[in-house]
Amino acid sequence: xxxxxxxxxxxxxxxxxxxxxxxxxxxxxxxxxxxxxxxxxxxxxxxxxxxxxxxxxxxxxxxxxxxxxxxxxxxxxxxxxxxxxxxxxxxxxxxxxxxxxxxxxxxxxxxxxxxxxxxxxxxxxxxxxxxxxxxxxxxxxxxxxxxxxxxxxxxxxxxxxxxxxxxxxxxxxxxxxxxxxxxxxxxxxxxxxxxxxxxxxxxxxxxxxxxxxxxxxxxxxxxxxxxxxxxxxxxxxxxxxxxxxxxxxxxxxxxxxxxxxxxxxxxxxxxxxxxxxxxxxxxxxxxxxxxxxxxxxxxxxxxxxxxxxxxxxxxxxxxxxxxxxxxxxxxxxxxxxxxxxxxxxxxxxxxxxxxxxxxxxxxxxxxxxxxxxxxxxxxxxxxxxxxxxxxxxxxxxxxxxxxxxxxxxxxxxxxxxx
Length: 418
What we know:
- The chain has 13 helices and 19 strands.
- By secondary structure, it is of the alpha+beta class.
- Strand 16 (290-296), helix 9 and strand 17 (326-335) form a beta-alpha-beta unit.
- Helix 2 packs across helix 3 (101-111), helix 4 (190-204) crosses helix 5 and helix 9 packs across helix 10.
- 39% of the residues are buried.
């Protein structure tokens, strides 16, 4: 493109802000129906957060409900109260450094007596000004009342696949994968995670001819299985785009060339884009047998009515479906949650489920990551730790698992055992 005149450079906008979207749960219906009380609570929170209030408008609905909107010098804040639900939905957006929207939401929750505050923080204007580059964040839920904030230095991909929201970004731990707001793997820690997941089952199984992997979009588990001696690895994942984006953008797992070969079933790894539940049903009907089945999924949903597609892949019927395709001496393994006392609900449930299906269960609680894993066999093995340790030569090199780690990791936390 050519031009006959030189256009003067326009200075980049110089603002950046934070936008907090929050839900306040467990709030008194009487308070939420009182527009004056909600207004007082919001004004108190805005003062505590350093905001400059220009005007406040409140409206009370019939038969119930209140909306309060505050115009700020820094931008705006709003509260939409639903007495019938005991909840208020809050939107606080501020630009500049003077006001603290997170503090505003925190104080507001306290002022209205909220039992639970769920907040999502979005950086606005990042990249518009030189000093705003790299200030985007991912706010990851950990447990009730707890979140972890990741600084995003550069977004490589952000979008919605058919099944989930997906972000690939540079963080302090290198290139990292987030799905539905939760960290799945990072360049710095992924090998520790994947070894803790895949090595114990690949050691406990009597044979390693055929391996089935459900989930684990990055492809590292498939590669570890081949390294250990598997001749066939069927990798099943429902999210085609996620697997392909991982191969394109992550410096670990499948490369684009390796994935293309696996999709064409050229080589030991064969990728199938399918529902794991249905794939296992079809495999059982065909009479397929696997020496190792490894299931690596996002965390088990904790909400009773959570519609997440993968929720059913945590239940006892799914474990039974996995067990139905095992060869003699075969094992089933799954990511089983977190062993910490403040986040161990999934591990407790999965321990009970594994014990109901498998006579032999080998736990592995990683002390170099935050996850626990369970491996089950359908026969009785008197000392599964010793058996697994005796087969460490299956791997030419390991970075985080040895005989001592297997022994230590095999002991579930006290709170889970009791």
